[in-house]
Design a protein that fits this description.
Four copies of one chain form a homotetramer. With about 200 residues, chain A is mainly α. Helix content of chain A is about 70%, strand content about 0%. Chain A is elongated, with a radius of gyration of 18 Å. Chains in contact: A-B, A-D, B-C, C-D.
């Protein structure tokens, strides 16, 4: 199969997943006891989590484009690994709401933050797996020949992106705020021009 | 009409349907009585149903691409049968949540699992019907001529895919877990390289 | 502007609107008082409304394609009228749920059915308005020249489609079931091969 | 990267965001105390906010197309600024529901209207920022050379669009109705043929 429809379907799934994030931001109920200002400010974890998840998924989309554009065509194995990657991306609205809802709870906050960073880690692993499969096992399907050394360099960047998300996941035990801060810092880092050596690189 | 916009619309509908599956996974409410870990683990039917539905719809998308790519153009009858197929796919977020919500209930669990497998069966029937219509009644619209024997072989694979979903639907009377296990096993089977003789084949 | 991105955006909006219809079908809460079978059967207005709305929007999509494919390019006025058409289509998940929720209520059922058929009428009016604008006021933007007589014939079909929805809206005063039946019959009629003189025609 | 997939992804996100607006329009619960007619009429802020937000996002989509179509290709910085623009657009379903829910509340209504107009302002700022970056900093990526004077003229229109939304945001302190009226008037103005000097221009 050509890669056009693979891209179109992936774009569609990622676009919907990223937009569903807004459903995690709830309108505060009208109450006599609390001002709207206070209620809105109190919801800050939802805004922070929204921004971090949106930008991270957005950067994954940028990288996904770079990854797929190297392909001349796709076979069954690439389609299935791509479905697994999309399946991990679609989990983000859930993981994002979980983290935001529990960030200030008296119990469960570490687990929620761990699931959040763990979902990022899962996306990064799925991305690196697909990238590895394309660059090594399906190198004959690339649209232009890329020297093995260069392919290994691209892959090393994908793999090196796993480490900070692993750290963020583990740090959730210590502090869920640290986890959120790391994930946010990574999103900012990958958004900066310095992070792109020709292509954006969260993984 | 050309098949481009037919593909674009189908991609869009399938991409949204598959992404809405995440809305079936609810964030547990914060309660003093139950730990988050316990609540998350307790929700396992939702994760299992999510994964099974996501992969099955994903494989249907792969097959849909293969089916439509054989066409040079589409007429009214193909568009309508395709709408019916999409209508069955869009039901999946409902059927998935129904099954997950009732899997461990003391009553209704068999019916819920039957509806779940029945929804897969409906998709498979809609897919096979469209495929049959394209390969037999609209063979003159194919982009390249395919011998009747080969067309019958493709169709036989679509039709043979109905049987296991019929079995899964009937087995819901005995055990809803068996139904879920069969649907999951089928998703894994069709995802494996062995299942694709040039194209993935859940139907 | 070319019509490619106009089609892509319209496809996206219609695909999402049609898929959101599934959110109107709720999983019955687990109760000791009622069996799941009874609860599911009791929800039949939601399934009927889902099927009618899905097929009708689907046929509008088919006609939208035919309408836009006549255009070589689009100007500001076409884009704005198209946005108004999309705005009416996106209302359908609301109108569909309203009708289904109130069909058997002791009060409000006629109004709900009237709003439902009225929403179809609104779509049909928005469609006919855009079609009229394209065929008469923007005839110089058509990709191939179409004789005035033929353009009037196409338009007459769009306009003639308004009448049955107007009847269905008015009949809501008498019986909401009649309204639903008419809308359903129209969806079936337009889906039949006989309804397409080269293109499907609900409007 | 070419601009095709940038457009496709942006189209997808905007199409989903605009369609999710319908989720803000709730079906009134069936109650013995209130007629459906009264309940539906009482919900008018939701319809007004829906229409205003839908048309404004729609016009932003039109302008987005004009902006991106000037580009021959996109680099990392354009993709990131485009993600920030999309992130502001996706907030609209939340801001729209907030405004509609609080418009007639006894407290919080000014803040809610301020957030609503502020969200429009944010979109306009994000749009103007991306437009400025494209027209000035990335002028060498334009598909056809545009004289500096002409580029400044296009940009001035983007920037001049900020003022009315700033006024609407500030006026929320005085009257949330005035804010809604201004946002609505702007949507109508930009939809009128007079507003398009070759392209629609809310910013």
């Amino acid at each position: 199969m050509g890669t056009n429809r693979l891209e179109a379907f992936s774009d569609g799934v990622i676009a919907v997943a990223v937009t569903l994030l807004v459903l995690d931001i709830h309108v505060p109920p009208i109450t006599p006891d609390e001002t709207l200002l206070h209620a809105l400010l109190h919801n800050w974890p939802h805004y922070a989590a929204y921004a971090v998840s949106f930008m991270t998924i957005g950067i994954i989309w940028v990288n996904h484009h770079a990854m797929i554009s190297r392909l001349a065509r796709a076979d069954h194995s690439i389609l299935i690994l791509n479905l697994l990657l999309l399946m991990s991306i679609v989990l983000m609205p859930f993981a994002t709401e979980l983290m935001a809802a529990y960030l200030r709870a008296s119990s469960g906050q570490s687990l929620a933050a761990g699931v959040y960073a763990g979902a990022f880690l899962l996306m990064a692993v799925a991305f690196a797996s697909l990238n590895r499969h394309i660059l090594l096992a399906r190198a004959h399907m690339l649209s232009i020949e890329i020297p093995l050394e260069e392919r290994r360099r691209i892959l090393a960047r994908s793999v090196s992106g796993l480490a900070p998300y692993l750290v963020a996941t583990i740090l959730a035990v210590v502090s869920p705020y640290a986890t959120l801060a790391i994930c946010g810092a990574l999103a900012v880092f990958y958004a900066l021009p310095i992070a792109s050596g020709g292509e954006a690189q969260p993984q």
